[in-house]
Amino acid sequence: MAPVSIFILDYIIMITSALCLVCGNPIFEELVDFGLIPRSNSLLSQPETSFPKVDHSLEFCPKCAMIRRRTSSQAPSDYSEVKRATGAQTPVYINEIIRDLTALCLTRGSLIIDVGGNDGAFLDLVASAGYTNRLNVEPAMAFIEPCRQAGHLVENVHLDLDQASRISRQYGLAEVIFCRHVLEHVPDPFCFLVAIRSMLKENGSFFLEIPDAEGIIHGLLGHELWDEHLFHFTADNANRLLIRAGWHIFWSTIKPHRGGTNLLVWAQPSSVDQATLSTSEIASQDVSACRSFKTRWTELTWRIIQDAKTWPRPIGCFGASHPQSNYLLFTGLGRQVEFLIDDDPGKIGRYVPIPQPVPVVSTAQLLAGPLPGTIIRSAFGCDFWMDKFCPSLSARGTLIVEPY
Fold first, then answer.
1. Residue 4 pLDDT class (50, 70, 90 cuts)
2. Which residues contact 131 (CB under 8 A, 6 or more apart)?
3. Tell me: the pLDDT tens digits for 265-275?
4. CATH 3.40.50.150 spans which residues of the chain?
């Protein structure tokens, strides 16, 4: 019987994974196909170093506009070996989130869980607000010991229903759970939200923060279609997914962040069965934006490439992280760029494939050598950093261009 049961389970998973996880629609349409690209965040020690590639194509649901990477392209979401800290990407509105937390009038010993808390930077802020019972559920092994040294409890796991049950037995149910920029990375967001719900008290609060896909599809921010994001949600279909997973949304908003926008939601467990939601006017507008995205993106990138033909050489680019490599790869500009500029010590002297490997130099190296003909202001959200150098570079003859 066991093999038959396993076969049935695999069949159910295969069938349900083909359906839209928000509305159950079995039909998807192509959003855009970027083809075979270097996997983002590939930092090479030498230009000859081999690097992984990924077939990066995306599709959308024509009923609710939920976007996903094509199933055949989805890479295993194993973040155990990731060493990329996100503390430096803290949004400007972070103190508003801490104020929302303190407004809940918790006791200082209330259990607060951060699911996918990375290097613990957010829990450090929670600690500074006086909360002593803090748990980071984080799969990346590199951050476990630093978090423990900071006084946070740590569970080094990829969260699922079984792990959620074990964690609840060990630590008790949480008063508040945070999940910031994680949902879009997991292969089954619905089950992930159900697992989180199982760890929370019935009167507890859940905070979700994810990239806002509405800004991407309407604003043509193609570089935000990161290959590590398996799903992209708008406010409308994210709310629908939360309701389906057993949540009551009592507050949501959209905030600007690093050149794009983020969706912020506070929710509580709901004991009321939710009726099926019909297609909204907002969803229809988002679907229209998805249908026209490929054409609009092609037209935009054609104009960018035409403009680039007039730019003085060589061409440099501010930033050496995935937003910059995405932008250069997806527009086709990468083949014309000769170096990237970044002051992260871990990136200086290394190479980023865009698709050919190009070196990363510091701003000190940039200013000390022959100046480039053109620099693209592509360090999205880091205008203060770029503004320190662009006026003097422009005064000395370098052409400064905006990415879009």
1. very low
2. 101, 106, 108, 109, 110, 112
3. 999 999 765 54
4. 1-304
Q: Please, what's the largest Cα pairwise distance for the chain?
A: 76
Cβ atoms within 10 Å, residue 263: 21
CATH 3.40.50.20 in the chain, residue ranges: 310-401
List, as one string, the DSSP characters of 31-42: EEEEEEEEPTT-
For residue range 6-44, list pLDDT tens digits in order: 334 333 444 446 899 999 999 999 999 999 999 998 999
pLDDT digit string, tens, across residues 85-96? 887 788 999 999
Looking at the domain 310-401, which fold is it? Rossmann fold (3.40.50)
Helix (H, G, I), strand (E, B) or coil at 235: helix
Residue carrying structure tokens 């349900």: 16
CA distance 174 to 199: 6
Tell me the whole-structure pTM to 2 decimals. 0.92
C-beta atoms surrounding 6 within 10 Å: 10
Label the pairing between strands 351-353 and 247-257. unpaired
- Residue 226 pLDDT exceeds 70: yes
Let me know how long the chain is.
404
HSE at residue 115, side-chain half, CA atoms within 13 A, is 31
Both tokens assigned to 333: 């500009």
If one looks up domain 1-304 in CATH, what number appears?
A: 3.40.50.150
Q: Identify each DSSP E strand in 258-377 by its residue range.
A: 260-269, 315-318, 337-341, 351-353, 357-361, 374-376
